[in-house]
UniProtKB/TrEMBL annotation:
Coiled-coil residue spans: none
SUPFAM superfamilies according to UniProt: ACT-like, Glyceraldehyde-3-phosphate dehydrogenase-like, C-terminal domain, NAD(P)-binding Rossmann-fold domains
Name the UniProt record assigns to this protein: Homoserine dehydrogenase
Family per similarity comment: Belongs to the homoserine dehydrogenase family.
Molecular function per GO: homoserine dehydrogenase activity; NADP binding
A biological process from GO: methionine biosynthetic process
EC number annotated for this UniProt entry: 1.1.1.3
Ligand binding (NADPH): K107
NCBIfam families listed in its UniProt record: PRK06349.1
Gene3D superfamilies in the record: 3.30.70.260, Dihydrodipicolinate Reductase, domain 2 (3.30.360.10), NAD(P)-binding Rossmann-like Domain (3.40.50.720)
Pfam families (UniProt xref): ACT (PF01842), Homoserine_dh (PF00742), NAD_binding_3 (PF03447)
UniProt keywords, alphabetically: Amino-acid biosynthesis, Methionine biosynthesis, NADP, Oxidoreductase, Threonine biosynthesis
List of catalytic residues: K207 (proton donor)
Length: 431
């Protein structure tokens, strides 16, 4: 039997213990598929006393993940600690410098330092694999890097944060406001230690920036992802959008345009009957569009011990088999510095506003839209039961408009004297 592939595992939390369980329970299956055994040699975590619901007694313990990374009895450094600075970054750099391949679930690390790490790894003849970092158990990195390698990618899209999708779909199903469901998600343990990583769109933005790098051959450019979280999505908008045949999703979209690379992670309306519109709960969905293949839709668990460890092990087994791929699907030195598109591609918009219910009010809004060069596709006035007689809720769906024109129109609404409160404007994505 060929020599085993030896893992140094940094992190024994949700994902790390998931990895331990697969290595221990599927040893024969993995050896048969990889052509050699895969073993864990040494592990690291903060607290050596913690009960971790797994037998770790045969593994060497390293208090310092950097020391683990430097050990000469490991071949692959598996980093499942998290964080884009500190131990995760230092240990990954140390592992590359001492000749280890890297498998990581850490999207934050790669979104911030992916290009430099890929250059260092490739200069050292090492590989970095990160299937688990994007959409958990969905094998989207492999699909994009290998399965679609012959395509010019047109667009990558997706719902890549399960917590946000849980919150939005639960609001809709139970008719509850954002704050109540956010608290529920906290109680259920769905939220990251810093919840803004989830509900602020940052975690999903990290993932989108990694997909964009592979799809468009550009350096990871997280700073250029337009980010807007779900904190301002109201139950009223969810219900009104539903009445019009749309669901609201925190949707990531990346595409190369004539104006540069467009990367957005923002709340969007999508058709309720589309695959993205149908996505319920904490599930993820990634949609890939290539010139030859057309559209591919992948759906599955985006988080959790089993699904995420499944993705980590796919990378480990590839390394055990001898598969050597560039981090982002082509040599890092050949990745282009992306030019960021200054504004998003025009799209129809959903506008919701409360107006004084008096003669000429709607005409003023229509005029403001016209002056912004925006054409109205549909318009509805609603008699909301909780509104006084002199107020009306108005919904408008526009024809395609640029974000700048929509912003100009909203500013003009403010000057009409008929607007009550702040209007909502949400992009409608063609999916
Ligand atoms: N959980 C999920 O479903 C998913 C997670 N990921 C990513 O996987 C990574 C791990 O996530 P998850 O398992 O949930 O995180 P956890 O918080 O559950 O576990 C983190 C682990 O890292 C250890 N750790 C943290 N800091 C240090 C340090 N300085 N030195 C040594 N060990 C340290 C912790 O030690 P101790 O236990 O002693 O505190 C813990 O074992 C993150 O990058 C995350 O974004 C990606 C996809 C899904
Ligand atoms: N917080 C993330 C975990 C996986 O990255 C989510 O909710 O999808």
């Amino acid at each position: 039997m060929p020599a085993p592939l030896r893992i140094g595992l940094a992190g024994l939390g949700t994902v790390g213990i998931g990895v331990v369980k697969i290595v221990q329970s599927h040893a024969d299956l993995i050896a048969a598929r990889a052509g050699r055994p895969v073993e864990i040699t040494a592990v690291s975590a903060r607290d050596p006393q913690k009960n971790r619901d797994a037998d770790l007694s045969t593994y060497h313990w390293e208090a310092d993940p950097v020391a683990l990374a430097r050990r000469n009895d490991i071949d692959v450094f598996v980093e499942v600690m998290g964080g884009h600075e500190g131990p995760a970054r230092l240990a990954t750099e140390a592992a590359i410098a001492t000749g280890k391949d890297i498998v990581t679930a850490n999207k934050a690390l790669l979104a911030h330092h992916g290009h430099a790490l890929a250059l260092a790894a490739e200069a050292a003849g090492r590989v970095i694999r990160f299937e688990a970092a994007v959409a958990g158990g969905i094998p989207v990195i492999k699909t994009l890097t290998e399965g679609l390698a012959g395509n010019q990618m047109r667009r990558v899209m997706g719902v890549m944060n399960g917590t946000c999708n849980y919150i939005l779909t639960r609001m809709q199903a139970a008719g509850l406001p954002y704050e109540t469901v956010f608290e529920e998600a906290r109680q259920l343990g769905y939220l990251e230690a810093d919840p803004n990583l989830d509900v602020g769109g940052i975690d999903a933005g990290h993932k989108l920036s990694l997909l964009a790098a592979i799809a468009f051959g550009t350096r990871v450019s997280f700073d250029n992802v337009e980010l807007e979280g779900i904190g301002n999505v109201s139950i009223d908008d969810i219900n009104l959008a539903d009445d019009m045949g749309y669901h609201i999703k925190l949707l990531g979209v990346a595409q190369m345009t004539g104006r540069g690379l467009e990367q957005r992670m923002t709340p969007c309306l999508v058709p309720a009957e589309s695959p993205l519109g149908q996505l319920q709960g904490g599930t993820n969905m990634v949609v890939l569009e290539g010139d030859s293949v057309g559209q591919i839709v992948m759906r599955g668990a985006g988080a959790g011990a089993g699904p995420t460890a499944s993705a980590v092990m796919a990378d480990v087994i590839d390394i055990a088999r001898g598969t050597r791929l560039s981090t982002f699907g082509r040599p890092a030195a050949s990745l282009a510095e992306p030019v960021a598109a200054k504004s998003a591609t025009p799209a129809p918009y959903y506008l919701r506003m409360t107006l004084l219910d008096k003669p000429g009010a709607l005409a003023k809004i229509a005029t403001a839209l016209g002056e912004a060069g925006i054409s109205i596709d549909q318009m509805r006035q609603l008699n909301q039961p909780n509104e006084a007689d002199n107020k009306a809720t108005v919904l408008i769906v526009t024809h395609k408009a640029s974000p700048a024109d929509v912003a100009y129109a909203l500013a003009q609404f403010d000057t009409t004297g008929v607007l009550i409160g702040a209007p909502a404007a949400i992009r409608i994505e063609e999916v």
